[in-house]
Amino acid sequence: MIDLHFHSTKSDGTITPKELALLGKEQGLSAMVLTDHDTLSGVSEFIDAATEVGIRAISGVELSADVPGKTVHLLGYGVDINDGPLNEALAKIRNGRKIRNNEILAKLTKYGCFITMSEVMEFAGDKELIARPHFAAALIKKGYASSKNDAFARYLGRGGIAYADRFRLSPAEAINLIHAAGGVVSLAHPYQIGYSTNELHDFIDELVNLGLDGIETYYSHHSYDMLNDYKAQCYKHNIIPTGGSDFHGENSTNIKLGVGVGSLNVPDSSFDSILDRINLRKKYKSYLSETY
Question: What are the extents of the domains in the chain?
Fold first, then answer.
């Protein structure tokens, strides 16, 4: 059993990278990938801790891509954490978050929700990466929202009174950056995009043409029909069915590392297929450099 999608205190989780590795060992996981939002800052700590307890691990990151009217998340696996262009893009994305956060705070104040950035930062493990879940926690503490879902529905989500957009990469830019950094790309939790089945299939076709390597098929909130549909799409395009819990620690609702809501079981073969594709890409890159 493995988990290829979860978050630490370096983005919007509540457990440190090292503690996640130890928790994974307790859960009996054989392979793990930390996929914090827009940062690679926790990867080295996590891989060191995972290796020490006998868990296979590679680098990971989750990027938001800009699609008109939609939010698309892409998971990058096996990237070089020191890659210059990727880190420059991540820094630009994080700066976009800071600009967006100031807009959110101003809108909340305008509509009578008086919270400060210091109060929001109380819930962030990494003070350099403040995300909407941290705003949600502050709104709940001050009594402006009853739950995370309520905070997003009324204030922070798309259509909420305090919603503010931020800089995102295009899908093509995100895929190219991850590939150039030596990684592979999987489409995270496809149902969350909000497309109909036919629209989603068309979108997957587009992403595959851009170089998509996988689809997050096994996921905490995927139904049986979703699971089978995404498996079929992976088979159709000869790409990898990946999977993960999307665990955020205390910020998760009834989700546990490795097992999601209790029934998640991501096969080890997904991790092996990712490694195979990473190695294949390395060989192809080496061949091109020698040929040209």
Answer: 2-86+171-291, 90-156
Q: Render pLDDT for 122-170 as a digit per residue (tens, 0 to 9).
A: 887 666 678 888 888 899 999 999 998 899 999 998 889 998 887 789 9
Region of residue 100 (left: phi > 0; alpha: psi -120 to 50; beta: else): alpha
16 Cβ neighbours under 8 A, 6+ residues apart:
8, 9, 42, 45, 125
In the three-class reduction of DSSP (H, G, I as helix; E, B as strand; rest coil), residue 246 is classed as: coil
What's 2-86+171-291's CATH class? alpha beta
CA 182, 183, 184, 188 dihedral sign is negative
- Written as six digits, the tokens of 282 are 């390395």
Which tokens go with 40? 């690679």
d(CA 255, CA 253): 5
Helix (H) or strand (E) segment spanning residue 109: helix 84-110
Which tokens in the block code for residue 106?
A: 């101003």
| Residue showing tokens 């939002």 | 37
Q: Within 10 A of 203 (CB to CB), how many other CB atoms are there? A: 19
Q: Which two tokens stand for residue 270?
A: 């997904």
At the second CATH level, the architecture of 90-156 is Orthogonal Bundle (1.10)
* 46-90 residue pLDDT tens: 999 999 999 999 999 999 998 888 889 999 999 999 999 999 999
| DSSP 8-state secondary structure symbol assigned to residue 154 | I
Q: Distance from CA of residue 226 to its chain's centroid?
A: 19
Give residue for tokens 């930390």.
34
Please give the angle made by the CA atoms of 57, 61 and 65, to the nearest 5 degrees.
150
Q: pLDDT tens for residues 98-110? A: 888 899 999 999 9
Q: How far apart are alpha carbons 31 and 56 in whole angstroms?
A: 4
Q: Name beta bridge partners: 247.
A: 6
For residues 177 and 86, is the Cβ–Cβ distance under 8 A?
yes
